[in-house]
């Protein structure tokens, strides 16, 4: 087993583990965001009830409640934006995984001796290459979306 193949195998495993760890971290953050959404929703409901039942409440108290409500809405919007970013990252990880798998299949076909390849092998190689290009294009679209979102937020 040549050294370069061991190195490639090790690097592939490391990349796989990085993607796995990143996916776990994203999943944890998405769960935290969901819990925070529920908490913000409950706080918002309480503030709305206070604002509706405002008979005899001083104006400064009403203003304070309204400011708290606006803060909750702002926080919820920022969490929704973060959730959107995380979902894009999840798609990116899926596409990275898919690209890696297709790359491995393509390498297995390309490593075969050209004289030993059957017409079916050539067709499969071309199909995998097409799928690989499609995945790369999808990743490009995601990156473009992220860049547009980042620029619009600035």
Summarize the structure.
The chain is mostly helical.
Termini separation: 51 Å
Structural class: mainly alpha
What kind of sheet is the major sheet?
Answer: none
Mean pLDDT, as a whole number?
A: 91
Low-confidence stretches: none
Enumerate how many helices there are, as a single number. 3
Kindly estimate the percentage of residues that lie in beta strands according to DSSP.
under 5%
Helix content percent band: over 70%
How many strands in all? 0
The total number of structural domains is: 1
The H/E string reads HHH
Q: What is the molecular shape?
A: elongated
**Rg over C-alpha atoms, rounded to the nearest angstrom:** 25 Å
What would your notes on this structure say?
- The protein is mainly α.
- It has one domain (3-153).
- Helices cover 89% and strands 0% of the residues.
- The chain contains 3 helices and no strands.
- Helix 2 (59-110) packs antiparallel against helix 3.
- It starts with a helix and ends with a helix.
List the helices and strands and how they pair.
Layout: H1 3-52, H2 59-110, H3 119-153
Helix pairs in contact: 1-2, 2-3
Essential attributes:
monooxygenase; mainly alpha; single chain; coiled coil; 154 residues; 89% helix; monooxygenase activity; elongated
């Amino acid at each position: 087993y040549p050294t370069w193949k061991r190195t490639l195998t090790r690097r592939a495993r490391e990349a796989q583990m990085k993607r796995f760890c990143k996916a776990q971290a994203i999943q944890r953050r998405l769960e935290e965001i969901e819990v925070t959404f529920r908490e913000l929703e409950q706080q918002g409901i309480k503030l709305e009830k206070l604002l509706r039942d405002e008979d005899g409440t001083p104006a400064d108290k009403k203003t304070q409640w309204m400011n708290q409500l606006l803060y909750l809405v702002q926080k919820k919007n920022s969490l929704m934006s973060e959730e959107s970013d995380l979902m894009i990252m999840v798609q990116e990880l899926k596409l990275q995984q898919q690209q890696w798998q297709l790359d491995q299949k393509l390498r297995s076909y390309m490593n075969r001796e050209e004289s030993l390849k059957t017409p079916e092998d050539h067709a499969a190689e071309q199909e995998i290459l097409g799928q690989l290009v499609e995945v790369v294009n999808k990743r490009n679209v995601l990156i473009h979306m992220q860049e547009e979102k980042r620029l619009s937020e600035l």
